[in-house]
């Protein structure tokens, strides 16, 4: 795998259409919401302090990431939550997802966070192994949607 360097950029009027066009593979759709759906979820839950960014490789949008960023009404260990991570189907298996996780882990740590949470829906082809390879560990919790909750200590 070739080392990649991604950049996280704000979603603006200039890039919104291209970012919304990003898609996962057909077999991944049950595990990853679209960018449009993610942005709707963010607008519906401002109290979660959604932080959404386009993932760029050079000048091309190749993915999307959204976190609940230092949500003030959450317990300290739950203030940073990786809500969505999407790498476009044309750019998968190149190390982009791993680089995004490294980048957001560094950003959360720089903000004083020491834990990053995420969750996933279990099933054939789920992203659980990807997260565990990165260092996330199951908390033993299952959320209200039946998703397995994972924790990464930073």
Question: What are the SSEs and their pairings?
Answer:
Blueprint: E1 7-9, H1 16-20, H2 35-44, E2 50-57, E3 60-69, E4 80-87, H3 96-110, E5 115-120, H4 128-134, E6 137-142, E7 148-153
Parallel strand pairs: 4-5
Antiparallel strand pairs: 1-2, 2-3, 3-4, 5-7, 6-7
Determine and state the CATH class.
Alpha Beta
The SSE string, one letter per element, is EHHEEEHEHEE
Q: How big is the Rg?
A: 15 Å
Q: How large is the share of residues in beta strands? A: 25-35%
Q: Work out the count of structural domains.
A: 1
Q: What is the multimeric organization of the chains shown? A: single chain
Low-confidence parts: none
**DSSP helix count?**
4
Globally, the shape reads globular
Class inferred from helices and paired strands: alpha+beta
Second CATH tier, the architecture = 3-Layer(aba) Sandwich
Largest sheet: 7 strands, mixed
CATH fold name = Aminopeptidase
Structural features, described:
The protein is of the alpha+beta class and 154 residues long. The protein has one domain (7-153): Gcn5-related N-acetyltransferase (GNAT) (Aminopeptidase, 3-Layer(aba) Sandwich), CATH 3.40.630.30. Helix content is 24%, strand content 31%. The chain has 4 helices and 7 strands, in the order βααβββαβαββ. The protein is globular, with a radius of gyration of 15 Å. The mean pLDDT is 92. Residues 6-154 form the N-acetyltransferase domain.
